[in-house]
Amino acid sequence: MDVRATVRERERDRGQTSIEFLGMAPLIILTLVLMWQFVLVGYTFTLAGNAADEAVRAGTAATRGDRDAACEQAGLDKLSDAWKGTPR
């Protein structure tokens, strides 16, 4: 193959990688955002499960009359104010 033809082909394709990256950038960003959302959902699931476990543990150890209060207190104890629904 002619060397000049190869050089011309390379010159014609110059910038193609940049254009392809710009075309794929929204898809890459969307994928990263979705992955971050899945991480947040998993973290939420972990926090809610831990709070439920703590509430059940405290409820089984409490006396019959104090069971509801002990469950609520233990369930809300390790959660932040945003989870408790209380204003800052």
Short description:
It is built from 4 helices and no strands. It has helices at 3-12, 16-61, 67-77, 81-84. The longest helix has 46 residues, at 16-61.
Describe what this molecule looks like in 3D.
It is built from four helices and no strands. It is mainly alpha-helical and 88 residues long. The chain is 81% helix and 0% strand. It has helices at 3-12, 16-61, 67-77, 81-84.
The termini sit apart by: 73 Å
Mean model confidence by pLDDT: 85
Q: What structural category characterises the helix and strand content? A: mainly alpha
User: Main beta sheet, described?
Assistant: none
Portion in strands: under 5%
Into which percent range does the helicity of residues fall?
over 70%
* Number of helical segments with 4 or more residues: 4
The H/E string reads HHHH
Radius of gyration: 28 Å
Say what oligomer this is. Answer: single chain
Global shape: rod-shaped
List the uncertain runs. none
Count the beta strands.
0
SSE inventory with pairings:
Blueprint: H1 3-12, H2 16-61, H3 67-77, H4 81-84
Key features of this structure:
about 90 residues, single chain, 4 helices, rod-shaped, mainly alpha
